[in-house]
Amino acid sequence: MIDHSLVKRFRQDVGDRLAHQRRLDQANGLPAMTGEDERQFARALISQVLEDHARSEIGLGRTPPTVEEEEALAAGIHAALFGVGRLQPLLDDTEVENIDINGCDKVFVSYADGQEVMQDPVADSDDELIELIQILAAYSGLSSRPFDTANPQLDLRLPDGSRLSAVMDVTVRPAVSIRRARLGKVFMSDLVGNGTISPDIGRFLSAAVAARKNLMIAGSTNAGKTTLLRALANEIAPSERLITVERALELGLDQFPELHPNVVAFEQRLPNSEGQGEISMAELVRRSLRMNPSRVIVGEVLGDEIVTMLNAMTQGNDGSLSTIHANSSMEVFNRISTYALQANERLPIDATHMLIAGAIDFVVFIEKRNDYHVGGTLRRYVSSIREVNGCDGRVLSSEVFTPGPDGTAVPHAPVSCLEELAAHGYNPGGW
């Protein structure tokens, strides 16, 4: 067990020494330390602080920390300075999938095998939890994001790629949800290996990406939409210029230059305390079209940016990818129409359906299910793929892959663009 009061005290001490060194370097005209240099310097300071503490304990006639206890303290201080404090061990656990915090001492952790376990507190008080989130909000995105009574909602991407959502003052206690990015660099072969898609669907989707088809990935919360989007993006040739647009940076395609050397990541900017400076998703999608993109990838459609995105898809920027919340592949069209009604353009249903028909080629629906009859195993799998065929007062579509006996999608109907997909290596096995 770590003495968290010591971690907090030593973190303050090391932080003060780091700040003092920064001021000295600036006064002497020295270049600022790089992130890695600062971490190395902090490790040396942590060792020095812990050594001073051990001497102090001996001088007072008390037993100093053991080697194991010192190592735990050092890791805790480092995590508090550069990581996410007491959350760090949970984020370091590769089997942790989701972390839900309903106040500092009610921490529920979901694991990859479907288990949910209550864990130790992540802070000594709710105020300390809020302070931790505020620190993360200040440094984790492209710009500082406020989290206070005036701005009680927060979405951001943690340094390890996990997605954090937090609220305060609209709940009795501050609430935080963290969705782990367990598969950062993920490929179609990985999804075939873990049963998310069959080999046939893997070949189909790879060919659709290569043929520059516009794909909308749909599913419920935490179904695996973003992971599938990353895998599809990794089918795109390294020579292409990608522009991603997100509310909070999550995709992280720019983190892998060996796969995508030419990436620009846009992040929505929230208004400041005076209500100024906001840059919306719709504005960013519009701006992305002026940045010479090969493809535009919109991380998640949740509002009025849908009209701008669909327009982009019909203006020659083929091969776009995006995700949307929906309960079925068919429901996607109604969801898009609802968002379009909320947009500044106030598109009527008929116009929206015409826009969908001209923009989207395929809707890929991914499901999450806990199979209690096989030991509670959590499964994620693509269960349906729908091709958009046109518009006649409503969106015309055909379900080319439907759920098979185990729920995973199997071929159901011919694809109208089969020749195009065949030119990119897709040879259907079921027709």
TrEMBL record:
Domain Bacterial type II secretion system protein E: 89-355
Positions of transmembrane segments: none
Annotated source species: Nonomuraea zeae
Domain of life according to the entry: Bacteria
InterPro entries: P-loop_NTPase (IPR027417), T2SS/T4SS_dom (IPR001482), T4SS_GSP_E_ATPase (IPR050921)
A single GO molecular function term of this UniProt record: ATP hydrolysis activity
Pfam families in the cross-refs: T2SSE
Name of this protein: CpaF family protein
Family to which the UniProt record says this protein belongs: Belongs to the GSP E family.
